[in-house]
Amino acid sequence: MNQSILNENFNFAARMGDLAEVINLLDGGVDILARDDVGWYALWHAVENGHEQMAEYLLEQGFKDFPELVGFALILAATPAMVKLLVRYNPDCYVTNDFGMTARDLMVNCGEYESIAIYDESGLPKPPLNLKLLRGIKRRCCLDRWSALMGIAVPAELRHRLDRLIQDYPYDLKKHKREFLKITDEVSKSA
């Protein structure tokens, strides 16, 4: 069988969580770093599809030596359990997706507070929060996420100020962003 077919089979087995087939293919000489036809690694498939046992096996078989690949896997992690597994392998926390967002940015954006707590408790570096998060999501939600992330309570009068601005100028994202930054600055100074 040619190498590209073996690589596809290897990545497909990882995607499906077929550990026996992955072990068989690795024993048969498939490179752990074999990519599929779209450029994905087996680890990424395992993580995206929630196969924790598969992900741990692949990490132990060699992916742990490539922090940037583990960092991208962390971007794909959909469950706190997967985040908990990946942070043990010292991922590169500054790896970004195509939109310039780190794994932590995505956790904040999606409101994955349990994953954020696991990440923060791991002692990994915390890249600065990407303000691109402010685009395309409601500023109030972003304010709630920011306050949860920073562990700082935002007074009700400041929340209302942002709510009024969003209501009065629903499409002026620059105004929303300026007000959001003013509020977060005020709260940070008073904390």
TrEMBL record:
What the entry lists under Pfam families is as follows: Ank_2 (PF12796)
Stored InterPro entries: Ankyrin_rpt (IPR002110), Ankyrin_rpt-contain_sf (IPR036770)
Protein name according to UniProt? Ankyrin repeats (3 copies)
